[in-house]
Amino acid sequence: MSREGAVRSKPGSEARRALFGNRNFRWLLGGGALSMLGDQFTLLALPWLVLKLSGDPLVLGTVLAMLSLPRAVFILIGGALVDRHSPYKVLLLTKYLNAALLGLLAALVWSGAITLWMIYGLAAAIGVVTAFSFPAGSSILPQALPPQALHAANGVLMGLRQAMVLIGPLLAGGLIAHFGDAASAQPLAGPSSASGLALAFALDAASFAISAWTLWQVQPTVRVNKAAPQPVLRAVGEALGAMWQDHELRALCLYFGAIAFFVGGPLQVALPVLANTQLPGGAVALGQLLAGHGLGALLGMVLAGALPRWRLKTLGLTVLAIDATAGLTFLPFGHISAAWQGVALLAPLGALGGFVQVAVFTWMQRRVPPAMLGRAMSLFMFIFMGLSPVAAAAAGAALRVLTPAALFTASGASLVGIVLLGATLTPIRRITDLPADAVSA
Q: Model pTM?
């Protein structure tokens, strides 16, 4: 499944100048920045809204499951349709739909009419829409930019996303705290107690509307061979079979699947619960924790650009070492009593993860043929999204009998065990993204 003759980008500064001189990239960058920032408002406001309405971690887990389950079910279909049709058209439609859904959520919260069943329904609808937007967004660059600009463009956009992860939670937490009773877990009493949450959702809706307009300004210039017309399920099966035959890619997908279930789910639910019950500041503390991780990831991506060939011998060994470090860090994480302590633990982990994120993503792009990229990326995303609903619901149920500290300890121990299995029983440690001479050096 590997692709020979990958196009090499221009040296550093020259490539960046050419990239920012490209009109299409400037429109994609501007719209992407707004959309990414808006996403962070919803990611913080939605779990906080559920906790204010119910005060029940199991309800939070099931709402997150309702957001993730439709996305997981339909993302494979979304990837097949992106390969068959235009990623540009699919992405544009999803932006309009997300703007409408989040605008409705903002209006319901502002009026005080919001109920849990409405949240479940809107979460499911947003999940369906994102099942199509994710593979479309990951496949649009080859149609808008020349091949030699793709590597630099991916690095800039991924770094921008991490910058939004840093800025967004801080702004969202401050907004909720200032305009609503964000530190309280009491049910919403009306517009005055929910205005911060409503504004957070409204800003995300506006970001989708504006980014749809910026996407209209993009003029596709590079033609990518589309997948041959065939039934959707057959197209998905074709991509799944090709990925399964690739032993290293198969091992990496199974490895990330185990991490998504045993680590990703508990973190989705336990982190906001810990901030709500254990840390002073409530939503502000949660925003600080998320922002700390985002800052670390951003710094890691900067280092990745400065040290593009640094590895612990291979990319696979680097991934395993970083995950082992993360597992050991999560063991004491549940015992923190202040936001700065959590930031001190999460920021270095974010830096390590950000360092390899660009390399792993580029490795997959180079390994997968362009005509199958939408389906391949949707299958990779499915690994996380398919397990996420089950993992989130299980974590919510576990928090009814376990403390956040105990769940974080179990999560860290599980991650260390997964790393040991990956290192000893799979070919992950042999995965490399560097030439043979660089690996042996």
A: 0.67
